[in-house]
Design brief:
Length: 183
């Protein structure tokens, strides 16, 4: 009896409760906004897809938390997951025809993580590679004729891509710090 109470106490830490509560609040924001504004139109399917994406990312973080005791590694995983989520979400919301290049960056990050066997040093190299690819995709989109025809399109594409480059680089630095801590 005492063992099961101790296990339950370890499972439900304040940080875990805060993470899952934040995920639930994030999912409830569109429901509240649909009541407040007529610009928000979500179907049941939209909520289902958002729930699967957010829940899946939360479960991936839970796996990473159990796999590593390193705070730097867990921070790197959290930043990668948030960056991937934001990339997918903004690509879906913008729907400007450039999305496939950005979605492939998320796929590249996943492939790089698997190729590195989720080891910190390999993850650092993989995320550095994804940051370089993000910069190249951003430059390609910014210099595309379609983007040039939109007022400030090139600047917005570079700022958008630059924001994500910084996030990928921060995750790479976290993984590098985790790799140094493992030695």
């Amino acid at each position: 009896m005492a063992g099961s109470i101790e296990r339950a106490a370890r499972l439900w830490t304040p940080w875990r409760i805060a993470r899952w509560t934040a995920a639930l609040v994030l999912l409830l924001i569109p429901a509240v906004m649909m009541r407040v504004s007529s610009d928000w139109h979500w179907s049941v399917g939209s909520f289902a897809v958002a729930g699967i994406i957010i829940g899946g990312l939360m479960l991936l973080y839970e796996l990473a938390e159990r796999a590593s005791g390193s705070r730097a590694y867990r921070a790197g995983v959290a930043i990668v997951l948030v960056t991937s989520f934001l990339t997918v979400w903004t690509t879906i919301v913008r729907d400007d025809g450039n999305g496939i290049g950005f979605l492939l960056l998320v796929v590249t990050a996943a492939i790089g993580a698997f190729a590195a066997w989720f080891r910190p040093a390999g993850m650092a190299r993989a995320m550095l590679g994804v940051a370089v690819m993000q910069a190249l995709v951003g430059i390609a989109v910014a210099t595309a004729p379609v983007t040039a025809s939109v007022p400030d399109g090139s600047v917005r594409a570079l700022v958008f891509s630059g924001f994500f480059v910084v996030l990928w680089l921060i995750s790479a630095l976290c993984f590098r710090a985790a790799a140094r801590g493992n030695r």
